[in-house]
Amino acid sequence: MVSRVLVPMEDSEMSDRALEYALEVYPNAEITVLHVVGEPSQMWGYATGLALADDLEQAAAEHAKPIFDRAREIVADADGDAELETHIELGNPARAIINRANDYETVVIGTHSGSVADLVFVGNVAEKVVRSAPVPVVVVR
Amino acid sequence: MVSVLLLVGILVAVFVGYNVGGATTGPAFGPAVGADAISKTAAGVLMTVFFFVGAWTIGRRVVDTLGRELVRDPGVFTLEASIGVLFFIGAALFVGNFFGVPASTSMTAVGSIAGLGLAAGELNVAVMGEIAIWWLVSPFIGFWVSLIIGRYFYSSLNRRLAMTRSEGPLYRIDRSRWVPVPVPTDTTNRRELGGVAMVIVIGCLMAFSSGTSNIANAVAPLVGSGELAMNPAIIIGCAAVGIGTVTIARRTLETMGNDLTELPLTAAIVTATVSASLVIFLSAIGIPASFVIIATMCIIGLGWGRATRPITVADAVRGEESVPISVDALTADAEGETLPPIGDEDPERIPSASDLFNPATTARVVLMQNIVPVIATGGAYVTFRFVPIFGL
């Protein structure tokens, strides 16, 4: 039985669905929502803005807050009593997820983010995670 | 018939100028508008004025390079071919704005014209090589200068430039004199006034640099074709840019989709100063510069330099720097915690700002910025080579 599930999330419909799926299929598991901040952007302004912040951790937490709030909403809508852990990583999303995945039994991830700019500059994160993650990966579409 | 074609050419050039105005007002005046220093309309007007000054003074050198030197025989710029080149430039700008993939207009323009020259067998390889070398060198100059600033001078600059906006409007208009003059209100302090002035001046510098390098993208093919003289072309191009700055630029300023607005004000000022200076220098020697790539490398340099900075004793004593970044091996252990035996330690590290600058990932972003120009070059070559309507 799967007891520790990692759900990487960002601001997209696909990752909402990934969390919904994880809640449905692993109702008793401990679910950790991971959000990666400072991912590549068109002119690298996002990552540099973070790097220049006085307090990196606080700035990262601020960026991640809307994602985690949304995740808690989804948990409340689904059932309400699942415990939700949250975790923030920095930098390249695929790399961060793969590094983190070691501590979990399964990764549940949405197929893609949907924006062309993300596809060009970040690449398809789910594809890279499937290829290199050390644990089984469920891709939700 | 010929005059109809010329009209079409001018219309396409106006379309390109209009898009240039829309796309460049954001980076130039985004910080000023964001800090409530000026209105969007004022930003548009300043943008147009300084764009024109840049285009009129230095911009014509780049027009010469693109319109007369890059191809050995300017005769290849038939009106049909000029319209084709402008079409590629306009399409690239549109794609860039639409999908949020910034494309260098100048690189696209050079690429399209080079495609035309190659198809006609008239490409001046020496000029093309000179441009290409500067394209490789200039982003690295921007990167290193910003890196040095980020590593050694950013904290002190930031202290000096830190701008806190006070409550209430910045200035009121004094109408009791002959000419209405803006006068600072009582709530405005001098430091604030200086900061605001600085942000506006930087915006004007960016507008000027944009004029020096971007006017050529809109009008060079028409000037090259000999159908339009230099001065009227520059005036028409600037008018088109002006329309863009007060119309679509409102949206680019508003949406905040612009990545540059993620930067703190000090960083925006540093990046703008370094990249605008480089662009103006390149334009002055007649090289069409690619602002997007230079600015991106400046941003990466600044951020990476800052992320890997050494912490000076003075800063550490003053407590103004967050220490864990360079000495995390020492501070990662909470007090009173028993240390695990060597070798048994949890491999998990403390995330640090340098994680944000993975070389492979940053390289990908810079490479991807070249996609649109590369496609435009290939597309232009194939089109001019095999579609027989351009009078080549």
UniProtKB/TrEMBL annotation, chain A:
Gene3D superfamilies (alphabetical): HUPs
Domain UspA per the UniProt entry, residue ranges: 1-141
CDD domains reported in the protein's UniProt record: USP-like
Pfam families: Usp
InterPro entries: Rossmann-like_a/b/a_fold, Universal_stress_UspA, UspA
Family membership noted in the UniProt record: Belongs to the universal stress protein A family.
Family matches, as PANTHER family: STRESS RESPONSE PROTEIN NHAX, UNIVERSAL STRESS PROTEIN UP12
Listed name of the protein: UspA domain-containing protein
Automatic annotation (TrEMBL), chain B:
PANTHER family: PHOSPHATE TRANSPORTER
Protein name listed in UniProt: Phosphate transporter
Family (UniProt): Belongs to the inorganic phosphate transporter (PiT) (TC 2.A.20) family.
Taxonomic superkingdom: Archaea
Keywords annotated in UniProt: Membrane, Phosphate transport, Transmembrane, Transmembrane helix, Transport
Lineage, broadest ranks: Archaea, Methanobacteriati, Methanobacteriota, Stenosarchaea group, Halobacteria
One Gene Ontology CC term in the entry: membrane
Transmembrane segments: 44-63, 75-99, 132-154, 196-216, 228-248, 260-281, 287-305
InterPro entries the record matches: Phos_transporter
Reported function: Potential transporter for phosphate.
Single Gene Ontology MF annotation: phosphate transmembrane transporter activity
Species for this entry: Natrinema altunense (strain JCM 12890 / CGMCC 1.3731 / AJ2)
Membrane topology: Multi-pass membrane protein
Subcellular location: Membrane
GO biological process: phosphate ion transmembrane transport
